[in-house]
Amino acid sequence: MYFETASNDHGLPHDPLKALIAPRPIGWISSLDANGIPNLAPYSFFNLLSTNPAIVGFSSATQKDSQRNIELTGEFVCNFASVDLIDKINTTSKHVAANVNEFELAGLTEAKSHIIKAPRVLEARAHLECEYVKTVELPNDDNGIVWSLVLGKVLAVHIDDRFIKEGLVDTLAMEPLTRMGYMDYGVLGGMETRERP
Length: 197
Ligand SMILES: Cc1cc2nc3c(=O)[nH]c(=O)nc-3n(C[C@H](O)[C@H](O)[C@H](O)COP(=O)(O)O)c2cc1C
Description:
Layout: H1 17-20, E1 24-25, E2 27-32, E3 38-43, E4 46-50, E5 55-61, H2 65-73, E6 75-80, H3 86-91, H4 102-106, E7 110-111, E8 120-121, E9 126-137, E10 147-159, E11 164-165, E12 168-169, H5 171-174, E13 177-179, E14 185-187
Antiparallel strand pairs: 1-13, 2-3, 2-6, 4-5, 5-10, 6-9, 7-8, 9-10, 11-12, 13-14
Flavin mononucleotide (FMN) binds at residues 26, 39, 41-45, 58-61, 64-66, 90, 93, 95, 179.
């Protein structure tokens, strides 16, 4: 099939685009609001964008609580999303009032961060403590939805020692949960290694 995004006339019940950029990593973003109430939500338009400095980014469709908190407080945590936490991760995507603590909503435990004030998800297998860098507004179609790319610098990294084997992080053993298209989550099925030519 072929379609152009200007008309989006793919003829399918749902836009197929997101199913093609898959699997996407999930940044499970925790932050604090102005009153110190924790917020937690998954973002799959998310990635590590550079190293030294390590910059991460996620895109928010309209200014949601995470973006607002981060712009206000200047910090956030990316918690590692793993398969065992799928239902809790999904629960934290619920559209709830800004003052609802999604840690409590999903039955998760807040763990103190080392450098920043925003809490980590104790149950997550790794965490990135991040300092807000800037927000880049993405081109929009005048359809009322403005997407923004929120960028942060990684200040500190926590890794559950059980997943460090012979000096390497065993990512496969950490069972990263990924986002596919539609309502689908992905589970990694294996790994292949090649030396760079
Ligand atoms: C797996 C998953 C990935 C998501 N990724 C995004 C995303 O990249 N951008 C976005 O705006 N919303 C995304 N959402 C929806 C948000 O999680 C949802 O709107 C949430 O309520 C936002 O919470 P907040 O207002 O506390 O930030 C995703 C939802 C799920 C379940």
